[in-house]
Amino acid sequence: MKPANTVFTALVLGSILALGGCEMPPPAADQNGYRGQSMGSVANPRTLEMREAANRPPETQPAADPSGPRASTIYQNVRVLGDLSEGEFLRLMAQMTEWVAPAEASCGYCHNLENMADESKYQYRVARQMLIMTRSLNTDWKAHVGETGVTCYTCHRGNAQPQATFRTDPGPMGAGGFTASRQGQNFAARSVGSTSLPNDPFTRLLSYADQIRVNTASPLPAGNPRTIQDAEMTYGLMIHMSEGLGVNCTFCHNSRNFGEWADSPPQRAAAFHGIRMVRDINTRHVQPLAALLPAERLGPEGDIAKVFCTTCHQGQPKPMGGAPMLRDHPELGAPRPAP
Ligand code: HEC
Ligand code: HEC
Ligand code: HEC
Ligand code: HEC
User: Fold this and answer.
1) Residues 140, 100: Cα–Cα separation, whole Å
2) CB 321 near ligand 4, within 6 Å
């Protein structure tokens, strides 16, 4: 063998050995489309295990006695949970404390302990709106959350403020004048998978009018025009959705034709409802709460932290591996008649 060949062979062997060590254990590939479509999902089993460990559902207290007089007749100022028995009501208060309140604050995080009916703490008023929102998610949005449902824990995970949220981000500013705004572009932003797409793709999760499209419906400019911005924002949002759920694009699309619904797996329909649900959460429930929060709880742009896919999913296709949340907390579903 010529010396040049030996060097070449050594280089090839060396790089195979070096690169082979990059991901241990080797990524696993699953097929999720019809045979021959090559719709594979690639994942690293070690990452999946770590995510699973970080997404265990919380311990629940044993169910309470549903009989007896209703909370609406026992307490002075109950506006949402009036249909619960006393046992169910106090069990839920204890659970909410574990799910949301800092340990040292306990019930006093939301309540004036001298008078439990007092509404003076902003946390109390926010929590009441959160109860309304959670009930609405479990009843009006079954198309997305199914019978699995959500509790406060799905978003809060033991924190007063959910950790995975987004705020309006105008992006880094330019030098001024003509270059004043970069529209959040040409910086590698984490929110869009370290690409230089616009770094705030989430406005698509706030506005019903925004079109999540790349393809035009007609070749003529008059029919349904799509702009470059539509395409960039769509790809940015798609990267957020993939990361939020810890999946590849092929979890929801047949990459032969991303826009074609008939070729897409059913998960894409679930995601379609998820996008509308997140718009409803933010516009109807979360954004109006900005008026209740003290100024220091708002972001630099004066907006409240908002919900996106990662808030519930946290890197898993189903939040907490699909653990049934509503089953142990039917009081967070539709109001029920007294037994
Ligand atoms: C995350 C906020 C939050 C925490 C923590 C919390 N509560 Fe509440 N509590 C509320 C809200 C909101 C209401 C009103 C519910 C409604 O309108 O249906 C309420 C109502 C009550 C009432 C009815 C008072 C009345 O007469 O109107 C009692 C009693 C109560 N809570 C007890 C507790 C206890 C005991 C704890 C601690 C184990 C606790 N709460 C923790 C938010 C909270
Ligand atoms: C869909 C996700 C979601 C669910 C479900 C949810 N929350 Fe929230 N919650 C939020 C967001 C987002 C905020 C605003 C966070 C911020 O300002 O950083 C918030 C804020 C709060 C705050 C104010 C915290 C503070 O210190 O400013 C309280 C209290 C609260 N939630 C209680 C609850 C309770 C009780 C439940 C269940 C009945 C619940 N939340 C369910 C997303 C959620
Ligand atoms: C969790 C499911 C999901 C994942 C993962 C996902 N998408 Fe999407 N994608 C959708 C849905 C739903 C729509 C349509 C949104 C709507 O109409 O509101 C869409 C729309 C699109 C469109 C626009 C198609 C058209 O009609 O113009 C493109 C392009 C696209 N996705 C590409 C991607 C790429 C690239 C990835 C991976 C980075 C990806 N998607 C990951 C669900 C998903
Ligand atoms: C309020 C919490 C919450 C938010 C926010 C949320 N989801 Fe979900 N999602 C769920 C729950 C709960 C399930 C499980 C439903 C079930 O078991 O039927 C789910 C299931 C799904 C599935 C089906 C997964 C499968 O394996 O079949 C997809 C896809 C999905 N969500 C996409 C999204 C996308 C995309 C977003 C953001 C636009 C989003 N979700 C936001 C709670 C949420």
Assistant:
1) 23
2) no
